[in-house]
Amino acid sequence: MSDKKAVEKAVCLIVDDIAFDRRMMRRVVGKSCPGLPMIVAHNLGEARRRLRERTVSILFLDNSLPDGRGVDFVSELAEDRNLRRVPVIIVSDFPSPFMYAKAQAANVREVWSKREFVAPAVQRAVCTHALH
């Protein structure tokens, strides 16, 4: 970990490839947790870079991305000793029973539909799961 990364405040990482959904998520996080810095990634490759560059306190991760599935990415994170502690909330248009099972096995904290991405849920998730 770089010295710069060690002294920066931990951030919320939002990963979604749809601009409308990213804007909605940023707006909800901003209103429900105004002091929490946010960064975004449009795909898993960009998410990997962001996770190497910054300390992430909580990750809101879309499941369907152009370069892979969020639920598979979480399994990848679980294998990395530096990233396995990052709390992940998977946010999907249509969560399936298979996705829930795979997410549970990968230690995902919660699985939400995008309709469930509302201020009270975000505030509760950040207070309950975020690394401080």
From TrEMBL:
Keywords: Phosphoprotein. InterPro entries: Bact_response_regulator, CheY-like_superfamily, Sig_transdc_resp-reg_receiver. PROSITE patterns: RESPONSE_REGULATORY. Pfam families: Response_reg. Transmembrane segments: none annotated. It comes from Ponticoccus litoralis. It comes from the Bacteria. SUPFAM superfamilies: CheY-like (SSF52172). This is Response regulator. Residues 11-129 form the Response regulatory domain. One of its GO terms (biological process) is phosphorelay signal transduction system. The keyword Phosphoprotein applies. The modification 4-aspartylphosphate is found at D62.
